[in-house]
Design a protein that fits this description.
Blueprint lengths: L14 E3 L5 E3 L3 H23 L7 H18 L12 H16 L14 H24 L6 H24 L13
Antiparallel strand pairs: 1-2
Length: 185
């Protein structure tokens, strides 16, 4: 079997193919949406590397999240897809359940938490902000095309999960959370 090249040269003029073969500009709103989801998936891959050494880490959730993000990316790359295969209301509930479990072990939140804590926690915060951007890009796409509501819900819930996860990573490492100091009036 002959090996195929990764490069095709078909994108050299700023166009790319969507699932199904339609061609579109590489800076199209659809590509911005699934490209940002892809960026988030890559950042979560880095987060997995940083959390690998922490005992009792729910890293299986990171695997779960990455698989769901790949499903979302495939859905967003498919014009006219009516639903996001491989993403369901149960997946959103899974994030909520995981958040609830982590939150029970955390101190009460009394102030805004500044990103940081540990390298892994800081990366979780970066993932959270990329997730929020992905959500915004998907909402922008949704202004002109139909977007399955579970995609937006999953991204919204995932950003919350990443915040709680970052707090859990900091607390488990025994590092104090740094909170925002409001300016005095």
């Amino acid at each position: 079997m002959a090996k195929s090249n990764i490069y095709t040269r078909t994108g050299d003029e700023g166009m790319t193919s969507l699932v199904g073969g339609a061609r579109t500009a590489k800076d199209d709103v659809r590509l911005e949406a699934y490209g940002t989801v892809d960026e988030l998936n890559a950042q979560i891959g880095l987060l997995r590397v940083f959390t690998g050494a922490i005992a009792d880490d729910p890293s299986s959730m990171l695997d779960f999240v990455q698989n769901r993000l790949f499903n979302i990316g495939a859905y967003l790359a498919t014009p006219g897809a009516e639903s996001c295969r491989g993403l369901s209301a149960a997946d959103i509930e899974c994030l909520e359940h995981s958040m609830d479990e982590m939150d029970e072990a955390l101190p009460a939140l009394r102030s805004f938490v500044l990103p940081g804590g540990t390298r892994a926690a800081a990366e979780a915060h970066i993932c959270r902000t990329v997730c929020r951007r992905a959500e915004r890009r998907v909402l922008t796409l949704g202004r002109t095309e139909s977007v399955a509501p579970e995609v937006v819900k999953f991204l919204n819930r995932l950003s919350d999960w990443l915040f709680v996860y970052s707090r859990m990573l900091t607390v488990r490492a025994g590092v104090p959370e740094v909170t925002w100091k409001a300016p005095s009036e």
